[in-house]
Amino acid sequence: MYVSSDFYIDPAAVMSLADEFQAAADALGGRAPAFASNVLEIGDAFGLLGECTGAAEQYQQLVNHTGHGLGELEQALAADAAGLVHTADQYILVDQHNSGLLGGN
Asked: Which strand (E) or helix (H) includes residue 21?
């Protein structure tokens, strides 16, 4: 396999990106419950017409789907962060191994 000498991965940059993904997941996880509780308090916003046409029920379903989607997004961001950490760790190990083969530290 040909490996170009122009290709380089900076594990610190990958770790920094992983930190950003994890911070986004944590922030989303902290805000999603507040979002769901706030949007569920619709009171009489749809009025009698909303009850008759099913708008309130449709709104409730949309809120439930959105809450579920936010949870999945949080999990995806956290999984991506973990994958980036693993990638950076693997590059570090490969660099150490190759350095050892070439007589470096």
From this structure: helix 11-40
Pick from 67, 92, 94, 75: nearest CA to 22: 75
Number of domains in the chain: 1
pLDDT tens track for 15-52: 999 999 999 999 999 888 888 777 766 666 666 666 67
- Of the chain, the end-to-end C-alpha distance in Å amounts to 25
Give dist(CA 65, CA 51) in Å, integer.
20
Residue 62: inside a domain, yes or no? yes
Q: Which of 82, 80, 74 is nearest to 24 (CA)?
A: 74
- 49-66: pLDDT as tens digits: 666 777 778 888 888 899
Token pair, residue 47, equals 């009025």
Domain that holds residue 52: 30-96
Q: Please check whether residue 20 lies inside any domain of the structure.
A: no
pTM (predicted TM-score): 0.76
